[in-house]
Amino acid sequence: MKRFKTALVGLMTISTAPLLAADSEAGFVSIFNGTSLEGWDGKPGAWEVREGAIWCTGRSADKNWLVWRKERPADFILRLEFRWDRGNSGVQVRSDDLGDWKIFGYQVEVAARNKMGLWHHSLLGADHPKKKARHLMATAGQVAMIEPDGSKRVRHVNDPVEVQSHFNEHEWNSMELIVRGSKLVQKINGEHFATVVDQDSEMSRKQGFIALQDHGKGCVVAFRNLCLKQLP
Description:
Strands 1, 3, 4, 6, 10, 11, 12, 13, 14 and 16 form a 10-stranded mixed sheet that branches. Helix content is about 5%, strand content about 45%. It has 3 helices and 16 strands. The chain is mainly beta. A hairpin with a 2-residue loop joins strand 13 and strand 14. The radius of gyration is 17 Å and the shape is globular.
């Protein structure tokens, strides 16, 4: 219990500052140039750039990911803006490339308001022995601790409906992901949505790809102003 309480320190002090541009704070660099998918790799026809944003076209029948190929960062802060209009999407961090634009690892859900706040482990098979703990790692208002043996304990720190009320469907929202050591923190519009402290000796990931998900079947979502600050 002592370790669990220690992991929670500082989670409730949440900044309400707006998303910062890449050149307005030391250390942040843009990973999307606003005009093309240079540095990114995606399924043909599934993604395009319009008006300074990366859009999922909604034309893919199957789930796929747009992968940032330049680096596989370990400890970092990722800031971006996103807009959800229809379907299911997400932002991946510290994830593995399975080929054919399939990405395995940590995902922040981007979907309708009542689904926001989810930390999810993408592409776990239905019969995976750790599916129960990792499929829904943490949801809105939660801090989840995953132990080295894969067992999970969850603390409810905020009302999920109140937390989700800070996300606006069909509008631009800011996202900040703070990924350092075993802790992954998700903030939307400056509010703490959910945190995972993943110490699983088998499944935790220390570095990996950043990617954007298109779940297929008419998904329409957009991302812009993606900025990354790598941490020492």
